[in-house]
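Before relying on records like the one below, remember that each one covers exactly one chain. Contacts with other chains, cofactors or solvent are not represented anywhere in the record.
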Amino acid sequence: MAKIEILSGFHACLALIERYPERILEVFIQQDKSSDRAAPIVALAKQHSLPVQEISRKKLDDKTEGASHQGICLRYRPQQAETENALISSLEDVSQSTLFLILDSITDPHNLGACLRSADAAGVDGVIIAKDKSVGLTPAVRKVACGAAESVPFYQVTNLARCLGYLKDAGVFVVGTALSDKAHVIYQSNFKAPTALVMGAEDKGLRRLTAELCDELVYLPMSGSVQSLNVSVATGVCLFEVVRQRQV
């Protein structure tokens, strides 16, 4: 049976009701919260015959374990992470438009949630992350993702290096981001083939073996004194360079 979790925050809850009402079990609204603020969520809940309860701020705090809930939370069955075998099966359908996002050792839930939002917006076919030394689909990740954690296929693999081998064997071009002598400016790359974009950890970047297994290394040119962007910001910029090229 799928695990039941609590999701909080106006935008995250609204996105989930709009996209996947069948996963929602119950909606909770703070009693003294502005009716105008909650109105879109209440209307959608009623449209889909979802139970709505008005409860006190204290009860809402208890349900969300002190998280910032903005007066709204819901109980739902979240999307679960897919396995390595599911990823292998998905590679049977590789096409010119295939685009994967691989995150190497991302540990900050806010960064992962933001990366998922960018992946959803860019039409990514799947986000891949290692089980070890990486954050998973936690409630904090799901809240930041604002519904994207439920819409983008999310694969947790045991061995990231082996996973890169599967992708390359399937004809996917693997492009890593790194500040390296072997890297060139991302705008010089051609992303019109099936592509997997690999982003490194918040502090150390790609691990050595991950970088060595990439077909190509790229970097974003910087004009200021800062040498790198936050990983979630860099992910958005890189993904939309792929989108830009493919729309030309």
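The first strand starts at residue 5 and ends at 8.
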